[in-house]
């Protein structure tokens, strides 16, 4: 199965389906960019309006027009918790920004998944 927007394999990045009848799956990055640039926030496949995205780990900037914002919960993106195995910081946590939708950075993603 492929992302309808970019055409790449849907499993290579974090993906989700919008709340509409078509149930099409998109990479989070692809649908985020599409909704951010769309005047009416509609599904790119079936054109159902007012689509919003959940906040996932790795989001660097919250877009009120695109993201579902829960006033009762403060969103905080978690940094990569992988323990470094070599180098001057050996034994410390990585603490880099996580890959979108995951709990590790790009460097440690392959080792943990």
TrEMBL record:
Q: Residue ranges of the RING-type domain? A: 3-46
Record-given protein name: RING-type domain-containing protein
Organism listed in the record: viral metagenome
């Amino acid at each position: 199965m492929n992302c309808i927007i970019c055409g790449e394999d849907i499993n290579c990045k974090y993906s989700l389906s919008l709340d509409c009848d078509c149930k099409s799956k998109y990479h989070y990055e692809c649908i985020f960019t599409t909704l951010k640039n769309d005047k009416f926030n509609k599904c790119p496949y079936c054109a159902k309006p007012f689509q919003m995205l959940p906040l996932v780990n790795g989001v660097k900037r919250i877009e009120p027009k695109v993201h579902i914002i829960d006033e009762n919960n403060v969103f905080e993106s978690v940094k990569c918790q992988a323990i470094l195995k070599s180098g001057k910081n050996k034994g410390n946590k990585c603490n880099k920004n996580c890959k979108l939708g995951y709990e590790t950075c790009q460097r440690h993603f392959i080792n943990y998944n």
